[in-house]
Design a protein that fits this description.
This protein is an all-beta fold and 120 residues long. The chain contains no helices and eleven strands. It is 0% helix and 61% strand.
Length: 120
């Protein structure tokens, strides 16, 4: 089992910055990748950025050059630094962890979500 707790969302003006944090607890050793997803009202949840246990990263085209995902293994925390925010970045942001244990196979875990609102 893995538990995820996000923080750092809020209201910001266009062009501003926010940093989201996601603290993982539980069977940390089972996690092989983590990421941030977002879901805007009336839209499907989409991947924003991901990072593997080897620190390989990937980004949605819409955030490349503006968002940076990173991890601090000592703190079991993944961050999403968001710069040059746009109104279209407004959404609930969810932290995700992908784990694997031989006994239970692959699992996806989700945080509770944190709102990011960008005003124009």
């Amino acid at each position: 089992q893995v538990q995820l707790v996000e923080s750092g969302g809020g209201l910001v003006q266009a062009g501003g910055s926010l940093r989201l944090s996601c603290v993982a607890s539980g069977i940390i050793s089972s996690i092989n990748a983590m990421g941030w997803y977002r879901q805007a009202p009336g839209k499907q949840r989409e991947l924003v950025a991901g990072i593997t246990s080897g620190s390989n990263t990937n980004y949605d085209d819409s955030v490349k050059g503006r968002f940076t995902i990173s991890r601090d293994n000592a703190k079991n925390t993944v961050y999403l630094q968001m710069n040059s925010l746009k109104p279209e970045d407004t959404a609930v942001y969810y932290c995700n962890a992908k784990s694997f244990l031989p006994a239970i196979g692959r699992r996806d875990y989700w945080g509770q979500g944190t709102w990011v609102t960008v005003s124009s």
